[in-house]
Amino acid sequence: MNAAGGAGIRLVLLGAPGAGKGTQAAEITKRLGLPHISTGDLLRVAIRDGSPLGRKVAAIVERGELVPDALIGEVMEERLSRRDAAGGFLLDGFPRTPAQADILDRMLVRRGQTLDRVILIEVPETEIVERLAGRRSCGRCGAVYHVRYNPPGVEGICDRCGSRLQQRPDDAEAVIKDRLRAYREQTAPLVARYEKAGLLVPVDGRGRPDEVFGRIAGGIPGLRE
Ligand code: AMP
Q1: Is residue 224 part of a domain?
Q2: Whose alpha carbon is nearest atom 6 of ligand 1?
Q3: Is the CB of 168 under 6 A from ligand 1?
Q4: Which terminus in the chain has less CB density within 10 A, N or C?
Q5: Is residue 83 in some structural domain?
Q6: At residue 130, what are phi and psi to the nearest 5 degrees?
Q7: Which of 124, 111, 112, 115 minimizes the C-alpha distance to 91?
Q8: Distance 125 CA to ligand 1 centre (A)
Q9: Residue 29 domain flag
Q10: At 1, is the pLDDT very low, low, confident or very high (cuts 50, 70, 90)?
């Protein structure tokens, strides 16, 4: 049983890059006491550390393309086998293709588990571009800011740990276009799949993070207060 009494809840967060998945994932996992499993974060740590995985994927991630499904499958197999994932989890950024959704289904079947909900955060593309281009993050503690909507106290410096903020290389405007295309072509088809399975919780992702969280909470057992 976790903090909110939602034993073993397994969630997926779907949405375009910049829809607010990371921000909402942090709040949901804090409230439910679940591990936040972000493939993007796992890959960025591997790249930063120069691990064999990181060396394989660095150029792909920098171009805004998707890492091959088989490789992501290995990363997730390892991550979901860790003990903290046995009592439920929230997946952020995975699955991202129909083949990855098949991989996830197989992993869950093998573990005798099922998904409980797939939360879809919807934001119009014009707003997404503005959000991503203004996003800055702390390479040390992972805190995320926006130059206009959520600026740090001192420009360019992390409020939490004092490190210099950076722009993710794949948030450069030229790359954003490619990431959005990858989303439209490869990830958006998953929406129909999860809708058909009766798992989809579509949420309007516009507005303040706490407003979006309130909408999500309305559709997830254990988050409603
Ligand atoms: P994110 O932080 O989720 O926006 O992911 C950043 C980048 O990591 C993506 O643009 C991809 O290059 C890569 N990536 C993250 N998750 C996946 C995934 N499930 N499948 C393929 N590539 C991924």
Answers
A1: no
A2: 40
A3: no
A4: C
A5: yes
A6: -65, -40
A7: 115
A8: 18
A9: yes
A10: very low
